[in-house]
Amino acid sequence: MGQILLDNFKIEVDTRIKVSKTDTCTGDSMIYTLSTNNPNSKHLWSTGDTTNEIGVSESGTYWVQILNGIDVSTDTVTLEIEKPEINIVDKHVYDLCEGSTYVLEANYENTNWFIGDTLLHIGKRLAYVPTHSKSILVKLDNGCLYEDTLWIETGPCGKLYLPNAFSPNSDGLNELFRPITLGIEEYTMQIYNRYGQQIADLDQTSEGWDAADAPQGAYMVILRAKGTNNEWYNVKSTVTVVR
After folding, report:
1. What's this model's pTM, rounded to 2 decimal places?
2. Are the beta carbons of 79 and 60 closer than 8 angstroms?
3. I need a labelling partner for 49 at 20 to 30 A (CA). Which of 61, 104, 144, 186 fits?
């Protein structure tokens, strides 16, 4: 008579939920993928899905039950899903010279760059040659409802304008004297009184001249500036302090 030997064994099931971020959206939320390492087992997710892998786009707690034979194993994960925002990395790049090339950068690879309804480029970076002032729109190309805009102000390189008067009288209007520039990388500016004495020395990092100790009257201004085209410009003018 034969003998039947029974061997009891337990199948170990890896129930850990794996979380991975996708590059797609539904509405205004990024989609995250939840999955397990048991594609051949039966699954029941808290969402009601019964597949090995599901996509979720809302913050919350998710659980999965895995049935392997007669054993049921469970795992739970809590997600805090941040809604992505697309933006142009350096929004200070708006003072551009006509005809020069500039590289604009967004914070996502799959970015659509538009002027109006015209698609300029798809990618994280845009090499852009401005011809006149305009607005540039960026959108994510993955179903996400996100966008950002940048107003480009353009003009000839080395454009300088010096006001001929200002009124530092603490009324909040025209309190400082400084050049208005376009396509200027750096400058130095000296202020002289009617006796030829230098009374102020400023550069592009200064907020401007406040004429704190200067009486009402006319002052000579000497400005030397370097354009983004590497050309130097020299300006000599006068400004009147009005009190």
Report:
1. 0.44
2. yes
3. 144
What are the pLDDT digits (tens) for 155-178? 677 778 899 999 998 888 899 999
| Separation of alpha carbons 65 and 134, rounded Å | 55
Structural domains of the chain sorted by starting position, each given as residue range(s) with its CATH number in brackets: 18-79 (2.60.40), 95-155 (2.60.40.10), 159-241 (2.60.40.1220)
As a whole number of angstroms, the distance between CA 155 and CA 133 comes to 8
Q: How far apart are CA 1 and CA 83, in angstroms?
A: 70
Task: Give me 154's structure tokens.
Answer: 């353009």
The 10s digit of each residue's pLDDT in 123-155 is 888 888 877 777 777 776 656 667 788 777 776
**Cβ atoms 147, 90 nearer than 8 A:** no
- Reported as a single tens digit per residue, the pLDDT across 61-119 is 999 998 877 778 889 988 887 666 667 766 655 566 777 777 888 887 778 888 888 88
Contact 141, 110 (CB under 8 A): yes
Asked if residues 141 and 122 have their Cβ atoms less than 8 Å apart, the reply is: yes
If you search the block for the tokens 């009617």, which residue do you land on? 194
Query: Which of 155, 163, 168, 25 minimizes the C-alpha distance to 83?
Result: 25
Sequence-distant (≥ 6) Cβ neighbours of residue 218 within 8 angstroms? 194, 238, 239, 240, 241
SS3 of residue 15 by DSSP? coil
The count of residues in the chain is 243
**What's at 18, amino acid-wise?**
K
